[in-house]
Amino acid sequence: MHTKEDIDKLAMEFEQCQKILIALGDENRQHMILEMMKIGNCSGVRVNEITDRTYLSRPAVSHHLQILKDAGILKMRREATKNYYYFDPDMESFGLLIEMLKKAISITSELPDRSQNHED
User: What pTM does this model have?
Assistant: First the structure.
């Protein structure tokens, strides 16, 4: 059985994952991530490439890329005056999210069913 401390730790971990949850929760950013994957250039993509594949303006794409970067999903490499965005190979933010979700599943799976309808 999980203790109050376990639940408090889960809450803290959930708080630590807020940036990635917010970043992944936006459908424009989800679309951008999918388009970046479809481009398939592991060395990175430029803002213009993403703008061409979405209905978003260049400033909007730049804004969303910054949020994805701040969340630890993307990194940026500069070559002269060109910026290339690529997926963070460490995936530390995804690892934190996965661990938090595993802990949430573990804690909630031990809770009793409190619904009136046990068919769900």
Answer: 0.83
Whether 51 contacts 58, CB under 8 Å:
yes
SS (H, E, C) 45-109: ECHHHHHHHCCCCHHHHHHHHHHHHHCCCEEEEEECCEEEEEECCCCHHHHHHHHHHHHHHHHHH
Residue 117, pLDDT above cutoff 70: no
Q: Chain-wide mean pLDDT for the chain? A: 91
Q: Is 79 helix (H, G, I), strand (E, B) or coil?
A: strand
Residues 97, 48: contact at Cβ < 8 Å? no
Separation between Cα atoms, residue 53 and residue 56, nearest integer Å = 9
Average pLDDT over residues 11-37: 95
109: phi then psi, degrees, rounded to nearest 5:
-70, -20
Q: Do the beta carbons of residue 74 and residue 35 sit within 8 Å?
A: no
Q: Which of 32, 34, 37 is nearest to 47 (CA)?
A: 32
Tens of pLDDT, residue by residue over 61-90, are 999 999 999 999 999 999 999 999 999 988
